Amino acid sequence: MMNKHPGDGRPPRGPRPIRGTQPSGRVLRTEVGEVELVTRPMTVGDAGAVREMHERCSPESLRFRYFGPMPRLSDRVIGLFTNPAKGVTFVTEVVGGERVVAMSNLMDLAAGEAELAFLVEDEWQGRGLGRVLLRHLLNVAPSRRISELTASVYATNYRMLALFKEAGAVVPRPAGAVLDLRVPLDGDPLCAYEPCR
Question: Of 18, 19, 22, 32, which is closest to residue 138 (Cα–Cα)?
Fold first, then answer.
């Protein structure tokens, strides 16, 4: 297994800036500390690495993503994630290491409408990777003729709620355990995170 950070075998401890590049097609390269990551569409061949990433995630991270226990991804779920007729799923991996550290989804709900979600391995949380992945999904959505994006988030998932609020999401008043958010697509999504040129 490749070390996540040269020298000490751990991912970089923050806060550290992430340098991102605008997606070329649907592939995105980012840098966390000294570690280069690539985000690309998931294929069936990624199933093993994605399952291993899920096994490294804490029960809380999995519950926040799936709203219940998800000890192992079934073949049916893997098939859903890799079916282009259902949407697009991206994997984020360490360049040269074939270690998946995050997964992001843009799943079709109806014509012009999709739901977004992502899961970042616990050891890579809190370093800005979620922000980069959200920006990537917002950039990809128009190319899929998506005009309305939604996301479901636990009311107690404060980190995720703050991320969506930063992106301009409409957050309803809490009325239950799960909040259904609307994420705007008007304007340039890059402007939500960095100066627009």
Answer: 22
* pLDDT, tens digit (0-9, with 9 covering 90-100), for 89-130: 999 999 987 799 999 999 999 888 999 999 999 999 998 999
Q: Cβ(24)–Cβ(41) under 8 Å? A: no
Q: Greatest CA separation found in the chain?
A: 48
Residues 6+ apart with CB under 8 A from 80: 86, 107
Tell me the pLDDT tens digit for each residue of 35-62. Answer: 899 999 999 999 999 999 999 999 999 9
d(CA 105, CA 81): 8
* Residue 74 CB contacts under 8 Å (≥ 6 apart), including other chains: none
State the alpha helices, DSSP H only, in the chain.
47-56, 59-66, 75-81, 129-140, 158-166
Cα three-residue angle 31-33-39, rounded to 5 degrees: 25
Q: Which residues, in sequence order, are CB contacts of 158 under 8 Å at separation 6+?
A: none
